[in-house]
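Example 394.
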Amino acid sequence: MPKRKISLLGATGSIGQQTLDLIRKSPNTYSLEACAAAGNNLDAFIQIVEEFQPKLVSTASASKADDLYKSLSLSVKNKIQIIHGEASLKEVAAFPLSDTVILGLVGALGLESALTALNCGKRTIFANKEPLVMAGNLIREALNNNKEAVLIPADSEHVAVHQCLQGQNFDKVNNLYLTASGGPFWNEKNLDFNSIKPAQALNHPTWKMGHKITIDSATLMNKGLEVIEAYSLFEIPYDKIQVLIHPQSLVHSMVEFIDGHVLAQLGPNDMRLVLQYALDYPSRQNNLTDKFLNWKEINKLEFFEPDLEKFKCLKLAYWAGKHAQTYTACLVAADEIAVELFLQEKIKFSQIPDLIEEVLNMHSAQEPKTLEIIQKTDQWAREQAMNLYKTKYI
Ligand code: MG
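Predicted structure in complex with magnesium ion:
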C-alpha cells in the first residue's frame, strides 16, 4: 500500500485525535501533511503541530493564527505555513503534497472542503456525514467527474455496508439494515423527555464522539442522517433502508440480498478501526488498536425496532430524505441550531424535533443543483430556526 499523505480537517476533534493516534502508531504508513482546527482548543492544537510538524496549518481567524504562531518552538515555526479563515479549509483539502483528505469537521462546515478534495482527485474520507446528507448529488457529480478521486465513508455503519457490498450487484439488495446503539434513552420507559439535561444526553453508552453527534445519537437524528447518507453513498431506495436498535453495537450494519442471504459486519466498537479501514482500503493492514472481538464474551446480540413516535427526529429525516430537493440541507442546518440551543439549555430535549419540523414546514424546497443553492438553504434554515426560538421558545 502506498503511504497515505494526509490532510486532516478537524485535527483537535474526536475524529482528528483518533486519526492522529493511527499516524503516531504507524508513521511508515501514514503522514500528516496539512491540518486544520478552529483553534478553540489551542493547547491541543499546539501539541499536534509540534509533534507532527505538518507543512500547512489552518485555523479559524487571524488572532488564532497569531496565538498559534507565538506558542510554537522556533524550529517548528520556520518549517510550517499558517493560514486562516473558512476559505483556508479548502487550501488544506487541496494541498498538493497530500493524497488523502479526512473530513472530521462538525456539521455543514465540511461541504466545500469535501467538494474541493474530490475535484482535486484526492482519496476523500467522510468522517463528517453532513456534506453527504446536504449535497449527495453534487458530491456524486464531483466524484464522477474526477477519475482519480475516491470516496470512502468513515461512519461505522457505512463502512460496514461498504464491506458487505464489495463485489455485489446493488440491484440485488433487498434491505440495508443500519444498526443504532439507541443512545442513552431508547429503552427508558418512563423518562420525561422534557426533563433531560445535556449531561444526560451526552452520556453515550458505547461510542466516544464529539458533542453534536452525541446529542444526535440521543435523539436518533444521527441515525436519520445516516439513512440519508446511505442513500447518497449507495443509491439504495429509502424503503429498503431500515434502522434497528442494537444496544451491543457489535454488528455495525447488515445487507440482506433478494435470495434471503444476509451479510453483516462486526468488529470492536472503536472509531480507529473504522478510520483505518477507510485509510487502507482496498488493502488491509494489521489492526493498530490491538482490539479484537472476544467471541466467548459475546453472549447476546439484540435487535429492536425504533419507536418513531418517541424519536421524531428519525421520522423527520426519512421524510426529508424521501422528499429530497433542498429538504436535507434544511434538516442539517435546523438540527445544528436546535442541538446548539439544547446544549446551551435554551430549549428542551423534546423541543429539538419540534423546532426542526417547523423549519422544514416553512421551507420552499428547490432542486439542489448548485453549491450556492445549498448554502443559501443552509443559511435560511439557520435564521428561521433562530427566529422561531426567539419568537416561540423563549
Ligand atoms: Mg455512525
